[in-house]
Amino acid sequence: MEANRYDAYREDTAGRANVADSPERIAYYQDLARLETGALWTVANKIEPWAPRSASVPVVWRYQELRGHVLRSAELVSPEEAGRRVIYLNNPGRRDVAAAVGWLYSGLQVMRPGELASAHKHSHSALRFIMEGKGAFTVVDGHKMTLGANDFVLTPNGTWHEHGVAEDGTTCIWQDGLDIPLVNAFEAGFYAVHPDLNQTVTHPVDDTSALWGSAALRPQTTGWTKPYSPLFKYEWEPTYEALRRHARVSAGSPYDGILMEYVNPATGGPVMPTIGASMQLLRPGEHTKAHRHTGSFLYQVAKGSGFSVIDGKRYDWTERDIFCVPSWAVHEHANLSSSDDACLFCFNDLPVMRSLALYREEAVKDNDGHQQLI
């Protein structure tokens, strides 16, 4: 990728236009500051950059390093005390807003058999991706979904929801993904606890899968008009089989391998207005070419092991690890296995990028489409 001709200019001016300081100008700026104002040319390149400059940095959160600490939280606090026992992921560049990447939040939540968290709702959209354990369930507006490993479930904004683990289950850990930083940046966040603390299940268990889970069929008379998917649960087995079928008949993307987006079956659009999700398959030995795009991406390794090169640095990952790709960071992925697939679950802010006409993509053209390691 060719160096941007403005790179040196940006570094030299450090966020301001090409206006040198002088005693008279500095005094002027101080006068403006006392009036809670400022001269645009002193911050022009900072607030209107030539290209996106993410404050987030690439990070790999290694599951085997975190797992013991997540389990330890279940010994230290109860669900009643904590509300939700979650170890959240903190990007070093976004500590001020507790974000994993960009305006996306993520954390690892643990629940023991027989535990049930209180029902609540909020302005933030959320999803859960099951990492380990048996017997997990979620209730969303009276719909109960049973959950297994690599399933993910939606708890859209404004819906009553609660999570638990069956008495005969095992300790469960899942990844939470929310748009908390984004909604808070808009200063639009509300939170409420259910007046009865828990919901009544008012529909047959797993009814949303029965109604909406057929990939090529849509129920005729549902009257669904809400802005999020009515299929609250997306199961791993049919997802993986769809990827494998796709791989048998298509080369896929040179930049993402075999990638399929989870969609709202009522509209064909994203699962929620502010959060998109996908699963991608890297064939044995596959190494994608490099590209970059706007939008923040948080990956969890659902299957296999490999590495990603992000802005010239290699990051190795294995099953259950989580890693992020900040907006406009150059990235490529590789499957280390010569005999088995690798699969990456991802949630992102693409619905926001696309709806606001901010999505932009660019491929690496040099070095046969790959990055030079630094």
Structure, explained:
This protein has 374 residues and is an alpha+beta fold. The protein has one domain: Jelly Rolls, CATH 2.60.120. Helix content is 20%, strand content 28%. The protein has nine helices and 22 strands. The chain has a six-stranded antiparallel beta sheet.
Provide keyphrases for this structure:
374 residues, alpha+beta, 6-stranded antiparallel β-sheet, EC 1.13.11.4, RmlC-like_jellyroll, Cupin domain-containing protein, RmlC_Cupin_sf
Quickly describe the structure.
With 374 residues, the chain is an alpha+beta fold. The chain has one domain: Jelly Rolls (Sandwich).
Q: Which fold name fills CATH's third level, the topology? A: Jelly Rolls
The neighbouring-strand order within the major sheet is 1-19-16-21-14-13
Give the N-terminus to C-terminus distance in angstroms.
15 Å
Query: What class, by secondary structure content?
Result: alpha+beta
Number of helices: 9
Q: From the alpha-carbon coordinates, what is the Rg to the nearest angstrom?
A: 23 Å
CATH homologous superfamily (4th level) name: Jelly Rolls
In the CATH hierarchy, what is the class? Mainly Beta
Q: In which range does the helix fraction lie?
A: 10-25%
Extended strand count: 22
Tally of structural domains: 1
Largest β sheet strand count, sense and barrel closure: 6 strands, antiparallel
Going by CATH, the architecture would be Sandwich
Overall shape: globular
Uncertain ranges: 1-13
Mean pLDDT: 93
| Fraction of residues in β-strands | 25-35%
Keywords: Dioxygenase, Oxidoreductase
EC number: 1.13.11.4
Pfam families: Cupin_2
Domain Cupin type-2: 108-174, 280-346
